[in-house]
């Protein structure tokens, strides 16, 4: 059995759990399937028409701005916290991604077969067009790339969560 999982579920949720677990000991990466960018929206009442102007306004008026997200500990919430810490710094990146995972211990031959099927999906221009209409980018990767991204983002969010004092009750 395989399952598609969002980055927030695979990376962030284990970091917020009372009993933390290295998710890659529980799941076997097959490959990334899609990425989905997020947008930054500000009120037209703010004197900011660019990200730089927003950052400058926030620095000049500490504590005067707030943000909204879908909920505490979600990817949008954490990305907002990360943005506040890194605003104006090179390297700020934030996207949601979906990957295909199987249970730990899936034989490599099965992973290879599933990866080949993902590769065929990646070549399907009609499928890619349907995703783009929904604001989602087809982004097929190897199991190794998905595992590396999962580890990298886990390490990054593991710094943001305690720094922002985020925990689930």
Distance between the termini: 32 Å
Q: What Rg do the Cα atoms give?
A: 18 Å
Q: How would you characterize the largest beta sheet?
A: 4 strands, antiparallel
The strand order across the widest sheet is: 1-3-2-4
Number of domains: 1
Shape descriptor: globular
Report the sheet-strand fraction: 15-25%
Helix/strand-derived category reads alpha+beta
Number of strands: 4
Low-confidence stretches: none
Q: Helix segment count?
A: 6
Task: Write a compact overview of the structure shown.
The protein has helices at residues 7-16, 51-60, 75-86, 108-122, 125-133, 143-163; strands spanning 3-6, 27-37, 95-103, 137-138. It has 169 residues and is α+β, with helices and mostly antiparallel strands.
């Amino acid at each position: 059995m395989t399952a598609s999982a969002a980055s927030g579920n695979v990376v962030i949720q284990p970091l917020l759990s009372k009993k933390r677990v290295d998710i890659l000991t529980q799941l076997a990466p097959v490959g990334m399937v899609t990425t989905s960018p997020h947008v930054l929206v500000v009120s037209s009442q703010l004197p900011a028409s660019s990200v730089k102007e927003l950052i400058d306004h926030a620095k000049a008026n500490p504590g005067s701005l707030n943000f909204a997200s879908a909920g505490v500990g979600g990817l949008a919430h954490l990305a907002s916290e990360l943005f506040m810490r890194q605003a104006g710094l090179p390297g700020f990146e934030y996207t949601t991604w979906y990957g295909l995972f199987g249970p730990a211990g899936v034989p490599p031959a099965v992973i290879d077969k599933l990866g080949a099927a993902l590769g065929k999906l990646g070549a399907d221009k009609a499928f890619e067009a349907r995703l783009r209409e929904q604001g989602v980018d087809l982004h097929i990767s190897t199991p190794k790339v998905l595992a590396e991204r999962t580890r990298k983002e886990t390490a990054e969010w593991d710094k943001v969560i305690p720094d922002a004092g985020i925990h689930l009750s």
